Amino acid sequence: MLHVTALIILLPLVGFAVQLFFGRRLADPLAGAVATIFVAASFVVAVGVFVDLLGVHAAVRSFTQVLWTWLPVGGLHVDIGFTVDPLSMTMVLFVTGISALIHLYSISYMRGDKDFPKFFLYLNLFVASMLILVLADNLLLTFVGWEGVGTCSYWLISFWFTRDSAASAGKKAFVYNRIGDAGFLVAMFLTFEKVGSLNYSVIFSHLHEIGSGNITAIALLLFVGAVGKSAQIPLFPWLADAMEGPTPVSALIHAATMVTAGVYLMCRINPLLHAAPDASLTVASVGAATALVAGTIAATQQDIKKVLAFSTVSQLGYMMLAVGTGAYEAAIFLMIAHAFYKGLLFLGAGSVIHGLHDNQDLKRMGNLRRYMKLTFWTFLVATLAIAAVPPLVGFWAKGDVLDAAYARYPVLWVVGIIAALFTAYYITRLTALAFFGEDRWRDHRPHGVGSDVAGGHDAAAGPPHESPWPMTVPLVVLAACAFFGGVLSLPWYAKGTLLQWVDPVFGANLYNAHQSAGMLWTLGVVDAVVAVIGVTVAYRIWATRSEHPQLEPAFLQKAWYINEAFDFAIGRPGTRLAAFTATVVDNRVIDGAVNGVAALVRGTGGALRRVQSGYVRNYALAITVGIVALLGFMVTRLWWS
Amino acid sequence: MSHTPFPFLTVLVLLPAAGAVVVAAVPRERVARWFHEALGVTVAMATLALAVTIAVRFKVADAGYQMTSNHVWAKVLGIHWFLGIDGISLFLVLMAAVLFPIALLGARARRDPRSFVAWVLLLEAACLGSFVSLDLVLFFLFFELTLVPAYFVIGGWGSARRGYAAIKFFVYTFAGSAFLLVGIIAVAFIHQAQTGVLTFELPALMHTHLSGTAGVVLFLAFTSAFAVKAPIFPFHTWSPDAYAEAPAGGSALIAGVMAKLGTYGIIRFDLNLFPQATHTLAPLMLTLGVIGILYGAVVACAQRDLKRVVAYSSLAQMGFILLGTFALTTQGLTGGVIMMLNHGLIIAALFLLIGWIVERRKTDKVSGLKGLQAPAPILAGVFTLVMLASIGVPGLNGFIGEFLVLSGTFLTHRWWAVVATGGVVIAAIYLLWAYQQVFHGTPTEEDTKTRDLVWHERLVIAPLVIFIVFLGVYPKPVLDRITPSVDRLVARVDRADGTRQPAVALSHHSRPGAGNAATRTTAATSTNAATTRAGGTYTGVTAVMFAFAPADGVTAGTTPTGTFSGGGTR
Q1: A112: left (phi over 0), alpha (psi -120 to 50) or beta
Q2: Which of A471, B137, B273, B398 has the most CB atoms around it within 10 Å of its CB?
Q3: Angstrom distance (rounded) from CA B541 to CA A426
Q4: Could you give the ipTM of this predicted complex?
Q5: HEC string for A532-557
Q6: Contact between residue B435 and residue B361 where contact means Cβ atoms under 8 Å apart
Q7: CA A59 to CA A39: how far, in whole Å?
Q8: Which tens digit of pLDDT belongs to each residue from A237-271?
Q9: CA distance A260 to A253
Q10: Cβ–Cβ of A202/B374 closer than 8 Å?
Q11: For an interface test with B, which of A163, A199, A205 has the most B Cβ atoms less than 10 Å from its Cβ?
Q12: Nearest CA in chain B to A146
């Protein structure tokens, strides 16, 4: 099966082509079913490749398939080549798996939308791009997937393009990512200069030739790219706006997969990070700070999807903390765990929004556990999972991250623990507001803040209703994963954890804290206590009353005024600069000089003008006649000679 | 002269010229209304067929001029009808041959199609002639000849301010050319003083010895003509007016093909004739390139009609080409050349699309258009794709050139490349902004009546879309043909200055002192296995691929191959 690795990417790509040419004819809902089948098939192939890869001895478990030579220019030689190793395989499995579930969910969620086939067109292309990103055997090809997922994200955020806010949010996401991409590009230039190749294996085997300063620079520049893609400080505001997209998009792209690309990239370049401790510390610090800052913001948001968006930012911060610590396995574990519970939270939120006829305002929800039982129970599982209540997956995953941080950067561990408290608090607040308390939605019937679905769903009155099966099946599957996901990395296996199969990719670069069992128990208890405190406090506060203005300061609601800061520092001066350059510099100075010279020539050349006709038209005709005569002469000479 | 090979290039140039004459000569009253256009398209298609034949017969690894034809034209003056094609000009010829029929089909003249078609064909002849001329006077004639049809196309079929735009365009570019003519004559005379032979042949004049100052002065004389034509900051102010006022087909051809004469002229003549001055003035030219990139992008942000946005984006793209050229590395210059091709395809597509919008709505002001994606999804889809190519999204052609230019520049002029990378960010801002204004939002009633692309428009734009995607995914056939000529040119420029481009830029077999590719590859493989991670999960799979770097044409490398890393040796 290893030789069909490319098929994993090809299947969603073919799905994309099918949607492109036949999507409108297939129409709603068949187009969605077809798209889902292609992604599911990709998952099946991935499982096959995975099984084959398990059969390879662990020490040499890496396989590269080169399709064709992409850029051969002098010393630069870049292939379209894909590598399966435990790291990329893990990513492929969870990307295709989650994607298949969310495709299925979308068939029902997007039902009736007038651009139904187009949604799946983008979604299929997204999956293909994400798989290119993950499987690429060189930096440049990773960048292809990187930009591909970014572009699909742009399309999907502004999917309901008639809404100005959606259109702007799409553009914003693209531009913020582009800032990070500039870092990615420069990193590649530097790598090529120092190594003469962009291939991962070549880069890693020539590290000693690069010099530690350059290694640090390359790692940090790539991290700039990761900061954009994985919405870290300061480039995170786009992710909150990205919630303008349909909810399945938020679940798939802006929670489970695309935003983790930055974390994946950092794991992929682990030899660079290992050789650059300064860069590692930077990654860890930015990650920890992001985890905390985004956690505080999430604690005050009123839009259900905004809470989840900032929660995602915070969780990505944890993953970066793990990466910076060198605990790559923990980062991957948290990434998978997060895909389970955050995907579940978003799909649950979508179910709620769907059930409440496009209401996203937490303050106009309440008591939904009575009306949407399945959604409530699965949502509750996700809540406890992300809050890191044992024995759910979040407890194990976040615990691994924090344990490593405690050993290597104790200060960052403290930040992480505080962020963990916020995590338990904000997610319980959300659940309490949505599913407990009174039926606040009765008083506010029509649309709430930023209605989610533009076309299709008519907001017919009626009590909230449970969603149809294509929406609930993914909920149940993800809930099971979020509950039992911990088995991937329980600390008590004799021969190491299941997830340890990715370890050979990192080898000696993997940070090993050598913590005693007692220490691990202590840290685990601390994590659990913090989680329980957060949950209890939030439940006490929010389950009964929905208004606590003192707990929702404007500073946090406005996300630390980061948008305003960007606008003040870049947006407005930039606009002024553009206007000034266009009107004054270009029109008056440069063009003015040109016209001035022309006028000067006209003035002094008065005498000359009398001799010649002075009309450009005549010059032009004269040139034509002259050159045609010359060419005619030429042709006669050819014939004559 | 008994066994003369078929004069492909001569026919290539004379065919559209003859077509222009014939079209102009057939009186309007005698034939059907569509006759002139049909004839024009036929001639343009025949030219395209010839260009494709040339491309097929082009020898891949040959860095020199191919299919040359050289005839003494005016013996006393030393002027030759000297044509030849190499990897640098091949794809400009192909691009021109593709774009002319597309423009004729996609943007038909509203009035007097006979004159329009005749001028367009004359423009094609002049552009093709410029690209394949190896005699400086011949080049100059073709170079100047482009002005005339371009002037008449802008002035005759343009929009409201066409008169102003046409005259400004003509006078400005004409003024630049005066320096070029003086420069050409000066070089020839210096060469004559040194060798006693008066000639304008480029290969001969390349051996002229020029003092440092003379070289710089002549370089500047040549460059002033090219800088206006391209246009390069700060000589660009004719272009927004010309592009905005010209009819859609005119903008597509002037910006897509004719403007390339500027950057092509720099590469072909400046670098070959004045290698030392090229090195001396490289920092200046690179700086102008970077300024152009940022300046064009910033000014584009403030434009309020689509054509002007595209015009300024074009200025930024020209900056990239300039940057790649004066980086003087294989990657940079190859990137510059392929960017000329890519930019031609992209900007022609953009102007055609905008032309179709204007045809439907009588405006290209963003304030007058809204939500077009709803009534015209295919138009929006194609526009998006071309826009993304222009932004430089990988997988599409624009990225290839941009990446090669920037990575090549980084090798020799790191900070210029870093600053220019900032232009990549701004390009996303103005293009996405323009797209949002026009295609997103709630359409007004008038907007909802906007017709989507009709079938013949889809057919016209389809080839451009295919090229944009294909060149992004599989540029190898193009790169394999460009790189040898570029390598030779860079080596020549470096030799004059006694410098050498960084070793990483060179392909392994041409690296100095490195033995051969095999030793390096083995070394890479073994260190790989030894140093990477405990288990050595990776080995130099690609290092092996490294050794395999022949210029193997179109088909090679397409067979999927898989390799186990390290498995065999253990």
Answers
A1: left
A2: B398
A3: 48
A4: 0.90
A5: HHHHHHHHHHHCCCCCCHHHCCHHHH
A6: no
A7: 31
A8: 999 999 999 999 999 999 889 999 999 999 999 99
A9: 9
A10: no
A11: A205
A12: B394
